[in-house]
Design brief:
Distance between the termini: 49 Å
Shape: globular
CATH superfamily of the largest domain: Exo-inulinase, domain 1
CATH class of the largest domain: Mainly Beta
Structural class: alpha+beta
Radius of gyration: 31 Å
Strand content: 25-35%
Largest sheet: 7 strands, antiparallel
Helix content: 10-25%
Number of helices: 6
CATH topology of the largest domain: Jelly Rolls
Strand order of the largest sheet: 4-7-16-9-10-11-12
Length: 349
């Protein structure tokens, strides 16, 4: 039902600002006249809080009607401001009531638009959107889109396993797509020396995320991601040794995640010359026979690796190669196989 075109007094009102959808985007704050259910509103972007209003992406807009029936610039009006709003209207010229005592025709300002009986999605007694409101919401959405651009990037879809197997270059390994346990993934077979499946993506700074599945077999499971790939033999990589995740031997336990830079800085050189700097334990210890989530963050010369969504990096180093850009790939060590799923590459411009 459309609100009737009548003037009403302005009693105290409350603010209905708790969003049942828990949205965290641009929002319309709607205040409700408690006595007469007359909506008022304010539009502005809010970060990390749920409010009644617009949800980015879905663009769910709560319809509202300005309380005084006028399309003047919309602004919040609390109890302290109600008197000013009333004074504004009293200074305008309104038609006088007829001698019969009938209700006067409500005043219509120059920008007034007659409301139709269209369906409403508003708060309270069937509120509707004004054209001014729509314009304000569009501006607010645009501002929030810029503010939340990194959040949108995080929603990027994983690279399809078929794409990796079909289009990427395989080095010392055969790659296949496996569909098992409700999950599609890339499987690299066993083989001598390290193996690589990569694409010449222009990756500089950004994030690489994926799920990897190794095995708890001593010296038989090394798998991770390579980045800044220059050629089949020149790249940086971060990888896991699942068989060391829960090792009772303290030395092995400390060698669960590793950074290397081929060809100049392989794992054995780094261990002998810079012990404890480029390999660390993974805490808490993952199940070595389960899928493990790995995220590698590259910022300039810094490399940080996070395991299973941990807030703190399991490994944080300064890169050694001097390379600042290059391809991205799936990596396995000698003679390891490996399974890889849900690969996402986010590049920072």
């Amino acid at each position: 039902m459309v609100e009737p075109d009548v003037e009403r007094p302005e009693p105290a009102h409350r603010v209905a600002d708790q969003c049942p959808l828990r949205c965290a985007r641009v929002c319309v704050i709607v205040s409700i006249d408690v006595a007469n259910q007359i909506p008022r509103h304010e539009v502005f972007p809010i970060a990390r809080r749920g409010r009644v209003g617009v949800e980015a992406g879905a663009e769910r807009i709560v319809g509202v009607r300005h309380g005084d029936g006028d399309d003047r610039p919309l602004r919040p009006q609390g109890p302290a401001q109600a008197g000013h709003a009333q004074n504004d209207r009293e200074n305008q010229t309104e038609p006088k009531a007829a001698a019969t005592g009938t209700r006067p025709e409500p005043y219509r300002g120059s920008s007034h638009r007659r409301r139709s009986g269209s369906a409403n999605h508003g708060v309270g007694a069937g509120a509707i959107m004004t054209s001014t409101m729509e314009s304000v919401v569009r501006v607010a959405i645009a501002v929030a889109a810029l503010h939340f651009a990194p959040c949108a990037a995080r929603a990027q879809r994983p690279i399809e396993p078929q794409t990796i197997v079909r289009d990427w270059k395989a080095v010392n390994r055969h790659a296949t797509v496996v569909d098992s346990g409700g999950r599609k993934f890339v499987r690299l077979d066993e083989g001598p020396s390290m193996g690589l499946v990569w694409t010449p993506l222009d990756f500089t700074d950004g994030e690489i995320e994926l799920d990897v599945h190794g095995r708890d077999v001593l010296q038989k499971s090394f798998l991770g991601v390579a980045f800044h790939i220059e050629s089949n033999t020149a790249f940086d990589a971060v990888y896991l040794r699942p068989f060391n995740f829960r090792a009772t031997d303290s030395t092995r336990h400390a060698h669960a995640i590793q950074y290397i830079s081929q060809p100049a800085y392989p794992w054995d050189r780094l261990r002998s010359q810079r012990s404890g700097q480029f390999e660390q334990p993974v805490l808490p210890e993952p199940d070595p026979n389960a899928w493990v989530h790995l995220k590698v963050v590259v910022r300039g010369n810094g490399v940080a690796a996070f395991v299973n969504g941990a807030a703190s990096p399991a490994l944080q180093v300064q890169g050694l190669s001097g390379r600042t850009k290059g391809g991205v790939g799936l990596w396995v060590g000698d003679p390891s196989p490996g399974d890889f799923a849900n690969l996402v590459v986010r590049r920072l411009k």
